[in-house]
Amino acid sequence: MSWFGKKSEPIKEWKVIEDKPLVAKALPKPSEKLDHQPTYEEIKEAEHEQIYQNVLNHFNTTEKFPVSEGNCPESQWKPLNKYEKAWLSRQCFLRYLRACNWKEQDAIKRITGSIAWRREFGIAGGEFEKITANHVKEENETGKHQIFGFDDEKRPCLMLFTGRQNTKTSDRQIQHLIYMLEKSIEFMPQGQDKLCLCVDFKKYPEACTYEPKVPPVGLGKSILYILQYHYPERLGRALFINIPTLVSIFLKLCWPFVDPYTKQKCKFDEPFKEFITSDQLPYHYGGEINYEYVHEEYWDDFVAKVNIKREKMLENFDKLGGEIGLSEWDLKEGI
Q1: 124 and 137 share a domain?
Q2: Fewer CB in a 10 Å sphere around the end CB: N or C, the chain?
C-alpha cells in the first residue's frame, strides 16, 4: 500500500512573489473559465420516487425530533427550526436515500440520527447553534484550515494544512473542522453539492506554533464516522500530498474503515494543479494566485462572505414557502 505517499523534503516557507499584488482573502466564486452546468438529480425509477415521497411525508408529518444521539427521552424532543427545514432539502433526502440504497426506513433512521447529532454537536441553527466563528477563530490563527478556490468541477476547496498546527488535540479541533466543512457547503455555488478536500502534510515552520502529531486511530475513526454517516455524498474529491511515513501508517490503519465509494475519490501525491485551474490555485502549488494566509485579513472577510451567502439562502427559503423538501438549486439562486 505504498500509494499512500512518499516522504519528500519539507518546504521551509510558503512561496509568494514579492513584486506581485498579494491575495489574502477567500475567493468568492469559481473560475469564469469553466463551463460547468448545474446538474439536476433525477429519479429514474418510479418506485424510488414513491420512496422519496414517503420519506418526505414522514418528516412533514412528524412534529418533534430528538435533541441528542442515543437514548434521548421524547419529553426533550423539539420541532424543526427554520435552519433545519432549509437543510432538509430535496437533494438532502436524495443523498441519504442513495447512501441507504433506497431503503426507506434506513434513510428515515439515518436522517433522524443526523438531526439529533447536528443539534447536540451545535450546528443545527437557532437555539442549537453553538459552534460559531468566534468559538473556533483561535484554532485558525495559523491558517491550518482554509476555504480557498474551487476545483475544475466548481467544488469549493477545503484545504487542510497539518503543518500549520497551533493547538493541542481537543474537542474544539473537531468542532473547528466541522465548522469549516459546514462553511464549505455554504460556499458551494448553484448546481454543486460536493466539495474538494485538499490535504497538505508538509511542515511549515514559520506558521506552526505547536508540533503536529499523528492523531490516535480512534480519533480518525470518529471523524470518518461523522463524515460518512452525517455527510453522505458531500465529498467530490480528496487530494492528499506530501505524506510523511507516520501519516502513511496512520492512513493505512484507518483505510479499512473508509467505504469503497469514498476510496474511489481519493488521490495520493498527485499535484493540486491537476484538478484545480490555475486562476483558483496559489502560486505555491503551481497556480497563478499570489496568495498567503493573513489571519487578520482572511477570517473576518471569510465570515462576512459566509453570512451573506447564508442570509441569501434563507431569504430564498422564505420566498419559496419555508417548507422542507425545497430544491437546493433554488435555495442557491443568486449566491
Answers
A1: no
A2: N
Strand order in 156-163's β-sheet? Answer: 145-150, 156-163, 195-203, 235-241, 266-268
Q: How many domains does the chain have?
A: 2
SS3 sequence of 259-299: CHHHHCCEEECCCHHHCCCHHHCEHHHCCCECECCCHHHHH
* Enclosing domain of residue 147: 133-303
Candidates 65, 91, 130, 114; CA nearest to 227 is: 114
Among candidates 264, 248, 217, 267, which has minimal Cα distance to 2? 248
Mean pLDDT per block of 10 residues along the chain (335 residues) reads 49 76 93 76 87 98 96 96 98 96 98 98 97 97 96 96 89 95 96 94 78 60 85 94 81 77 88 96 95 96 97 98 96 93
Residue 163 belongs to domain with CATH number: 3.40.525.10
At residue 218, the pLDDT reads: 59
Clarify whether residues 241 and 115 are in a common domain. Answer: no
In this structure, what C-alpha cell is assigned to residue 203?
Answer: 511542515
> Which pLDDT score is estimated for 210?
67
Cβ-based burial of 91 (10 A; exposed 0-12, middle 13-18, buried ≥19): middle
**Separate counts of helices (H) and strands (E) for the chain:** 11, 5
C-alpha cell at 120: 447536540
Q: Residue 5: inside a domain, yes or no?
A: no
